[in-house]
Amino acid sequence: MINIAHDKRGLSFRDQVVADTPGGEQLAHCLQCGSCGGSCPNGADMDYTPRTLFALINAGQRDKVLSANTMWCCVSCYACTSRCPQNIPITDVMYALKRLSLRENMASGTDAPALARTFTGLLDKYGRSFEFGLASRYYLFNKPISMLKMGPLGLSMFTRGRMSLVPTKIRQLDQLQAIIKKARELGGAS
Amino acid sequence: MAEKVGIYVCHCGSNIANMVDVEEVARWAGAHLKDVAVSRDYKFMCSSLGQQMIEDDIKNEGLTRVVVAACSPHLHEKTFRRACQNAGMNPYLFHMANIREHVSWVCEDKEAGTRKAKALVAAAAERVKRQQPLTPQTVQVNPTTLVVGGGIAGLQATLELADAGYKVVLVEREPSIGGHMAQFDKTFPTLDCSACILTPKMSEVGQHENVTMLTYSELEEVSGSVGNFKVKIRKRARYVDEDKCTGCGICTEKCPRKVVDDVFEAGMGNRKAIYSPFPQAVPRIPVIDVDACIWFERQKCRACEKLCPTDAIDFEQQDEIVELEVGNIILATGWKMFDCRKVSQYGYGRLPNVFTSLEFERLCNAAGPTGGKIVLRDGKTEPESVAIIHCVGSRDLNHNSYCSNTCCMAALKFGHLVLEKTNARVYSCYIDMRTNQKEYEEFYQRLLGEGMQFIRGKVAEVTDAARLPAEAGKLIVQLEDTLLGKQRRIPVDMVVLMGAQEPQADSREMGLKCGISCSMAGWYTERHPKLDPVATMTDGIFVAGVCQGPKDIPASVAQGAAAAARVQGMIAKGTVTIEPIVATIDEERCSGCRICNDLCPFNAIEFDEEREVSHVVTALCKGCGTCVAACPANVISGAHFNNDQIYAEIHGALWDALGDDGSAGQASPEPVESAT
Amino acid sequence: MKYAYYPGCSLECSSAAYDVSVRAVAELLGIELKELDDWNCCGATEYFSQDELTASSVIARNLALVEPDLNQLVAPCAACYLNLKKVDHLMGEHADLSAKINQALAAGGLRYQAGRVRVRHLLDVIHTDIGEQAIRDKVVRPLTGLRVAPYYGCQVVRPYNGFDDPEQPVKLDELFTWLGAEVVDYPVKTHCCGGHMTQISEPQAFELHRRLLQNAVEYEADMILCMCPMCQLNLDAYQNRVNGLFNTHFKMPIVFFTQMLGIAFGIEPKKLGFGKEIVAAEPVIRAKLAPATQPSA
What we know:
The complex is a heterotrimer. By secondary structure, chain A is mostly helical. Chain A has 11 helices and no strands. Chain A has 2 domains: 13-103, Fumarate Reductase Iron-sulfur Protein, Chain B, domain 2 (Orthogonal Bundle); 112-185, no CATH class. Chain A is globular. Chain B is α/β, with parallel strands linked by helices. Chain B is 28% helix and 23% strand. Chain B is built from 18 helices and 34 strands. In chain B, helix 1 crosses helix 5 (110-129), helix 2 packs across helix 3 (73-86) and helix 5 (110-129) runs antiparallel to helix 18. Chain C folds into 2 domains: 2-122, Glutathione S-transferase Yfyf (Class Pi), Chain A, domain 2, CATH 1.20.1050.140; 140-288, Rossmann fold. In chain C, the strands form 2 sheets. A 4-stranded parallel beta sheet of chain C has the order 2-1-3-4, sandwiched between helices. In chain C, strands 6-5-7-8 form a 4-stranded parallel beta sheet, with helices on both faces. In chain C, helix 7 runs parallel beside helix 8 (171-178). Classes of the chains: A mainly alpha, B alpha/beta, C alpha/beta.
């Protein structure tokens, strides 16, 4: 059963994806050629290749798309975007799908959202990333057993001065936080 | 005596009527405009009844001017002018107001649309009263035709004209006629040997008493207009005397300098510095490539001259400029292949065993560099597997957005040749299979039956970086098999790229020479994409073959024949009617400043040195109005577009800005002193 | 030549070798890098997954902070470079997004006009602005005998491909031929290292690493040159784990291109961050290169 549910803006799923992606109008021009799926370094591990995902989007298969692992396998290498014969900003579509998926709480079977949330949480707090904090928090909450495997690496990084145990804060943190607050207000979930 | 204007407002079904209250416009025109004897609205003015209505009114009401408010003049100006003429009125006393494209199709409010339509009708009514009867000029059509390009389209056009008894001058840039078709091995879908079906035509053209063939020549300059063009052709020096040469080939055999043949052999083979491009070349007269020849390089050798039995080598030969007069020109300049190096992820130019389609044709051709054997770049190893990649440089906004029309069929043909000549597996990596002409789908079915494998996926990359032992030493074609939804890596020995057809590098330049335009992609613009594919907006210049857009051999032949038929029609008629909408210079008042001379885009203005005045050659004048606007003394007038008429039109258009009752019957502006 | 400089979070710590070598080399080449005052993290590939407007605004703050007298911003980190360039580009192309970003920036008393700052990667600055002759002139210890595999990765050459080809880039290759090195024609030079995949799914990521390392070994490279902290971290820090998973025996030094540039310029390895890499590079340098003839700079 094709589900073409409309969102609060009265937009179909495809229109939502297009609206949330800068330059997303090009998505309508997808030839289903498969360049993207063929180029993707993680293509072989995705539930659906990017191309398949676009076909699903066109068919209004919202749930399938937002619970797929495709976008979470995307590492922003831009090979697809570079090669797409219809100039579809594919990597940016992937980002839009990540956002939509998170908003709908449909991401599953992947730790990528947790990594993203932990990272941005630290950025919001300090204005800089904090690798030790990121690693410890992320691994602790998501894959605690892996932490053991990370131990030796962490140690060798630390002894070579490549990891700090203390976060760096920017000076004008309140300025950044004001910007972030305003942006969140303006952005608003769809 | 006052004029009697007939006004006809067309509904065009609902095309105009849904956005313009046509009855109201007709009623208003009759009530408010001056000198209107008849004002009607009608459903379809272009119908025979509509036209009859005009003719009847002219006869019965004594109309002296007619205005039709309907669609664009491009569509029906001729129709209504003819109706007027049938009723005995000069057709140039008619004017058309466009209330479809200019009103109905661009307005969103009926009230606004009706108001605008009234303005256009009022404008037309004022203007038409000031129009003058004009008589078109007729010029003779020179029965000789120039065909530019000796590929299959040009050859077809040439033969049809020549067989009909008319003289043709055929200009070809390469040393031999034949075009790309001469390079191919087989042609789809019949799998005829390309040379076998081409060479009879080449032969016929070469021997035809009505054909003057100028090979190794380029069109340099065109002037004049339909029926009477003057062309300059540069006959490049071959350094071989055509009258003495017998085509024996000794010069080529003995020439010590070998170079890569980038043109005919697509870089796959060699030729000599003195060479004829292929064995069946027409004419069979070699040329000397001055960039390769030892004599031109360092004044040594001249072996060809010494050995030529008829003393035909002439190192003193110069380029010759041939000046001709022709009546019509057919451009059949063909195409070049897309540079596949631009798609660097396919590795052409970097990975040895990646070939272009033209290179592969040469491999398959029995007269080619490998004697028809399909082998890798080492010249001897037969591939065990071949991947053919569709859409290289086509359907791709990074390169060319269009589809090249022929590649899917050519890919099938290649698949057949691989299966026939080798034991290799062959894959087609496609996005769509475009096999839509007669017997083409059947050809696809044939290849399915022969065991060609088809994978739907645009290849992402061709690489030699193996990931697994099975991939070592192979070319790996990586793509998404979209029908499976899975990424696949296919190890093959050879990859063939179906490169796009592209316009010749100088197509735009050539078009400008002839006064025709190109599309953004560089293909020549036809007069109408659906209904007039071989004529151009410039009378007397026709296009045929791939230069008009990507197409295959049957379509090129059809266009060549179509262009020839059009030209034959013109020659048979013998004369061409030139629109009388031309500029005229009042020679009494011309000061001889000559500003207009260089501004004319059609070179239609001559300067009389004796009388020191300029003069418009009406046969060349297109009535563009540039000189009219530029003349500082205002002594040039454009017939049918003089100042009087234009000011009247403006006055009419401003009907609702003049007078309380919106009547356009105010006194017309004083006629401005002008040439007419 | 003076540029605003955006080191990025990785260069502060985990890729400190990149930062110190950049500064050392810049000084020698007369490139003045003025670090952007109080810059914030660009969000890497993580922030855009959460919220486009916030991610863009956070990045735009950095663009807005570039001093009025400087109009070029140099970033050595690929992700930072891409993010900064992307936001500048987005603001130029999408007026409504630009307006919203500026509204957010206004909350912090800042504003940014798209196009004011030209974002450039460090390799571009070195290759294009300094150029061949100046580089060759500074070489005191030619890298003759050293086979280097130039690894461009993704985000420097895609999608903004103004300064080099996205499929077959050459600028790093050329730079190293100027230094006298033997540049290996490394066919996977723009294949992805997996980025943050290492944190999300090790087997997937390690396979990508393996392919890159394997290819370098097949082409007999002595070391891989990187221009991105993530690439260096992935290929270097996890090399032992890759060996563990695939039973391979890679021992391929992964260094930042500026480190080797510094070596060619005669700068002491300690001053270029050598010793920070997990898979030691100095033994290879000592084995392959003629010893430094001049006292180091």
